Amino acid sequence: MSQDREPCCRPFKARDFIVFSIDKPPSDFLFRVIRYATLIILVASFSLVLYSAVTGSTPWFRLPEDAALQSAGGLLATPDCVSGDNISETNISHIQFGVAGSVTTWNERRHYSELWWEPKVTRGYVWLDGKPNASSVLWPRNSPPYRVSEDWSRFKYSSSQAAVRIARIVSESFRVGLPNVRWFVMGDDDTVFFTENLVSVLAKYDHRQMYYIGANSESVEQDVMHAYGMAFGGGGFAVSYGLAAKLATILDGCLDRYFRFYGSDERIRACVSEIGVSLTTERGFHQIDIRGDPYGLLAAHPVAPLVSLHHIDAVSPIFPRQTHLGSLKSLFQAYRVDPARILQQSFCYHRMRNWSISVSWGYTAQLYSWVVPAHMLETPLQTFKTWRSQSQGPFTFNTRPVTSDPCEQPVIYFLDEVREGAKGGETMSGYQRTAPAQSGKACERPDYAPVMAVKRIKVSALKMSPHDWKKGPRRQCCEMVKLKDSTLQVKIRSCIP
Q1: With 60 as the cut, is the pLDDT of residue 438 above it?
Q2: Bridge partners of 123?
Q3: Using CA of residue 251, residue 257, residue 261, residue 266, what is the dihedral sign?
Q4: 199-217 core/surface letters (b: 16 or more CB in 10 A; e: else)
């Protein structure tokens, strides 16, 4: 028995494409219109997808993760309105500083910030825990402008409520919405920044990516107690725009999860870790978690630009017979002549006399009456102790002991003059001999007498370019030019390949 049926799945017939068919009922006509409209939409959608794949054009709709770049007030757009990799080089105007301060201590500590802050050049704020008393003196014009932190009393804490306020400076700075900010740099009111070198460091990184840049403590006991992967806040740390945008959306909730932590920097590190970002270490950030004389540390600075110093009041003045602030002013005098070279070491030898010399430019020089290999000269003399226990170590770097034998000590000279040279791009600096590091009887060995006769060292050098830090790090060399009238002349130069 047979039955004639339409096939369930038949190809389109020509008459199916006649839109207005007078021999079909209205319901069938409507069904056909819907079917053809659906077909047209599918073809058009496929064409648009194919076009986008070929041309690589921008997505039509903002992705969900882009919401982090929008603030509650709509202030936060992609920085600099850049596209692709066509962006200008990072400069000081792209950095927003957030200095943690207090109304009770600012007048005592503001002099440290005023060393490096340049009105109308540097941007940012000192964040205070209250509004300054209007009846007191006017806000110093050479200080960073101030803002009062938002209410932080609603957050949980176990030991330091101030740490919560300071940690939130990152997100509060972000929400200010200053234009064209690429980096948010945090520090304390006694942190001293060397801003030109800071720019050189940050310029190496893409601010649109997520970066958390700084350095840990010099004392192992501090790193064990807190974290090796943490940027210690007193030494300063930098957060890229890309990371700050994300951090601003999670920070408040994150702070309550880590209320048992002691410091603000410890809280920030924990929250950054939740995002999946680890510390990028730059050796020019210095927490100065040491006690005693910082001479050995500063005289053997790593081959990296000097970015910051902290805890200056907790150690001896870095120059003899000067105050803490006066010492920093002396260092800044040299820094302003040649920012990239400040504290950079150079070694040279006098083969006939078997002398060795180490110059830490803009700070000190050491003259030895014997040949000291480079790997020893670059190792700091341990003139200091650990931060918490004030013990002999350990530190996060090697040290060499300071002997009590005067014949085993170098003759030490400190900067007393720095200026531009007569030739363009050249500098001249002078270093005067000071008293021996250890009190007691002077060395009476015959071979030591010639070095003791050198009372002054004069150093000439070409200025370093900030672009030198984009190359592989290499210490520059020097040569002893001549010895005349108790003055040793030294010339710093690039090392021979």
Answers
A1: no
A2: 96
A3: negative
A4: bbbbbebebbebbbbbbbb
Residue for token digits 């001249």? 428
Instruction: Report the sign of the C-alpha dihedral through residues 114, 119, 123, 125, in that order.
Output: positive
The closest alpha carbon to 294, from 236, 216, 219, 406, belongs to 219
Window from 109-118, 147-156, 295-304, 452-461 with minimum mean pLDDT:
147-156
Cβ neighbourhood burial of 62 (10 Å; 0-12, 13-18, 19+):
exposed
Crossing angle for the helix pair 264-275 and 241-257, to the nearest 10 degrees: 110
pLDDT in tens, 276-307: 999 999 999 999 999 999 999 999 999 999 99
The token pair at 45 is 């959608």
Q: Maximum CA pair distance of the chain? A: 131
Number of neighbouring beta carbons within 10 Å of residue 415: 22
> What is the predicted pLDDT for the residue at 9?
41
Instruction: Give the type of residue at 471.
Output: K
387, 223 Cβ separation under 8 angstroms: no
At 416 the pLDDT is 95
Alpha carbons within 13 angstroms on the beta-carbon side of residue 182 total 21
